[in-house]
């Protein structure tokens, strides 16, 4: 009798575990509606144009959220729910990582010996869906398009490994007001219905028209993966 009861209890427990295994991934990757656009800015850089970017994202139909001086743990934590991810901060020479609050940083590759480093690889590299629902990651930081043998390559890793539809990052340095004007104009043109690639080209033309003697190198020298056929409007999540 006791063996029968024990068998039934074990069977019920096994069934509960099986159901949780099937349900939990769906909970983890449940997507908000309307799609999220999360922006992160830091007062160590000139973020005076960022409120315009938030408004453009709202105009496109995204649930745009703007956070200031956030640590890397919280920046990275909900990226899987972002249709648009935008971070405006400092980067490091040789690339691969960007600065967050309280001495923390986000990198592409995992560096286990650095407990202040929160990598995309550690959080999403072995997950099933990775960041395949993200339409755009925009790394508004110096050197963010450059490769580091230690920290990896942020935009490259997002596009080729994590399944992000399109990525934008920058070579060399970014100086205000040129770079932040470029960022604002990109989102303005994206709001008008241009592809990501075309919006970037229009933003470059606008910035050049405003400051003809300022070259894009060391100011707003952008790189983009797969922006020719991708749009931000209408608001939606991305796919592989």
Brief summary:
The protein is of the alpha/beta class and 240 residues long.
Structure write-up:
- The protein is α/β, with parallel strands linked by helices.
- The chain contains seven helices and nine strands; from the N terminus they run αβαβαββββαβαβααβ.
- The protein has helices at about 1-30, 50-60, 70-75, 120-125, 155-160, 180-190, 195-210, and strands at about 35-40, 65-70, 80-90, 95-100, 105, 115-120, 135-140, 165-170, 220-225.
- The strands form two sheets. It has a six-stranded mixed beta sheet with strand order 2-1-3-7-8-9, sandwiched between helices. The protein has a three-stranded mixed beta sheet with strand order 4-5-6.
- β1, α2 and β2 form a beta-alpha-beta unit.
- α2 packs parallel to α6 (about 180-190) and α6 packs across α7.
- The longest helix is centred in the first third of the chain and has 27 residues, at about 1-30.
- The chain is globular, with a radius of gyration of 20 Å.
- The termini are far apart.
- The model is unreliable at about 20-30 (pLDDT under 50).
H-E order: HEHEHEEEEHEHEHHE
- Tally of extended strands? 9
* Average of the residue pLDDT scores: 91
C-alpha geometry: globular
Task: Give the distance, in angstroms, between the N- and C-terminal Cα atoms.
Answer: 54 Å
- Describe the biggest sheet? 6 strands, mixed
